[in-house]
Amino acid sequence: MLGGNGREVTYLGHIISAEGVRTDPDKISAVRHKTCPTDVHQLRSYLGLCTYYRKFVKNFSIIARPLHKLTEAKQKFIWTDEYDNAFNKLKDALTSAPVLAYPEIGKQFILDTDAGHECIGAVLSQEIDGQDRCHRLFQVEKKFGMVDPVVHQVTTPSTSESDPWSDKSVRKVQLADPEIKPIIEFKESTGGKPSWQDIASFHPTTKRYWALWDSLHLRNGVLYRKWESDDGKAFRWQLILPKTRVLTVLKELHGSPTGGHFGVTKTLQKVRKRFYWNNVRNEVEKWCRTCDPCAADKGPGKRIKGRLQLYNVGATFERIAFDILGPLPRSSDGNNNILVVMDYYTKWPEAYPIPDQEAPTVAEILVQNWISRYGVPLQLQSDQGRNLDSAVCRRLCEIFGIDKTHTTALHPQSDDMTTGYSPSQMLFGRNLRLPADLLFSRPTDAPLAPEEYVENLRTRMEEVHHLARDKIGMTSEKMKTRYDARATGQNFHEIDQVWLWNPKRRKGLSPKLQTN
């Protein structure tokens, strides 16, 4: 509705005039005569009206916070002095609301931000008629929980131009750069190239720009470098980029949707078509090499092999390993998996059919078929499968005092135990009799007295174990020597951050379009 003087209009509860925007007195009169609410529905209705005009109220979120808290679920509606005080403060603020002036595009804006333990907010304002005028109050975030509000706080006010890449804005940033400012001042004052004595005390970057003096030009007060091809037929203007803008440019030309996360060469080409700064190649290369999305998508460029770590056991059933083979075709007994258990020292294996790969099944078989016959091992090794490292298996190890270990992630080869020794000879002190021995009628040893047999068996097993330990040690050292000759080595510390190579391929999608 057009006002009586023809210079203002009423629109959606606001009066818009040449001076600015203010609240409609007819709407605010409802707030002025509002009595204290008697239930949560009346309070929500009142807060809805106040929130509609919140940009006219300074510190609205702080004032209205107690009232909003009263509308929360499971909150009993009991009107106290705290709520009455907040209610009256909102009423007074709305009935005396200021006029919000219009922003003047092209002038400097002021962004004030602050944070506390209860809220965080920001105000965009502008200096009009010698004083700061509020433009609008941005959204205030409430109830941060355990998040430290200091993380969200900007401690110093900052200024921003309407167009950060306008000539005026870029010139201002260039003059704020101590390495570019002397070149601009020399260009504007003398026009001629200063002597070495004049620039000898400046930063090395300034001296680099001084060496490019003839190719540097001022255009609308902004410093550019004129690049020309070798034949002189092509040229382009490269903006001399201040350090404060380098990060923004690299993010846009490499990491944005139009940047495409290209490699060093293509990213450098895009940068040099538009900008120039000292040491541009090294900074572009470092940015591309340390880009997290690029590293995650491309995977490890060079596989680093660490030095081989030896772990030799020296006693029977000291350390055992187990794994599951399956699923296989289901048998008549309902089993379709095989649990394989092997002793690290003697290399004695045993296999047990199981109906599933669930942790309780695995734990039951280990106790009934291995631990009950051979005793409790000191260590139990498996890969990192969830069924082999579940709460049930961890509880089993806790009860029996077993140290649970794992193979290296994504490297089950570290669980290999092939040595070439006879497991039966290591465990029983003799080789197993095979059907071939019966077929070819091999002569049997002469019977011995029990005491003599036990003594011979003890001596024979001591010799076998002694030779086995020597053999294992020699083989391990040779293996380590050969492996370490190809190992590059990488020393990691406990607090180091590393990439985890965890390739996951989805069916129906090209590997080139998948990410890790």
Automatic annotation (TrEMBL):
One matching Pfam family: Integrase_H2C2
Integrase catalytic domain segment(s): 296-418
A GO term, aspect molecular function: RNA-directed DNA polymerase activity
GO cellular component: DNA polymerase complex
EC number assigned by the record: 2.7.7.49
Gene3D superfamilies xrefs: 1.10.340.70, 3.30.70.270, Ribonuclease H-like superfamily/Ribonuclease H (3.30.420.10)
Top EC category: transferase
InterPro entries: DNA/RNA_pol_sf, Integrase_cat-core, Integrase_H2C2, Retrovirus_Pol_polyprotein, Rev_trsase/Diguanyl_cyclase, RNaseH-like_sf, RNaseH_sf, RT_RNaseH_2
PROSITE patterns per UniProt: INTEGRASE
GO annotation, biological process: DNA integration
Protein's name in the database: RNA-directed DNA polymerase
Lineage: Eukaryota, Metazoa, Ecdysozoa, Arthropoda, Chelicerata
